[in-house]
Amino acid sequence: MRTYDDTFSGTKIYPGKGKIYVRGDSKIFRFQKGKSESLFLQRKNPRRIAWTVLFRRQHKKGISEEVAKKRSRRTVKS
User: Residue 44 — left, alpha, or beta (φ > 0 → left; ψ -120 to 50 → alpha)?
Assistant: First the structure.
């Protein structure tokens, strides 16, 4: 099953969901919800919108679980 990423928010879009916006220069933008499409058309920066994936990555939200998984055994040189 092919999924796409929302151009604005970064969330997954499953088949049969969302909207496609094609700009005059033939660049394609995909949106999961009207909310993200509206903010994109208002030229808002997704890094400043708290619920987007870009904001969460920039401000290190929800990474604590991933860090715990990444810690593994290190070989000690003697």
Answer: beta
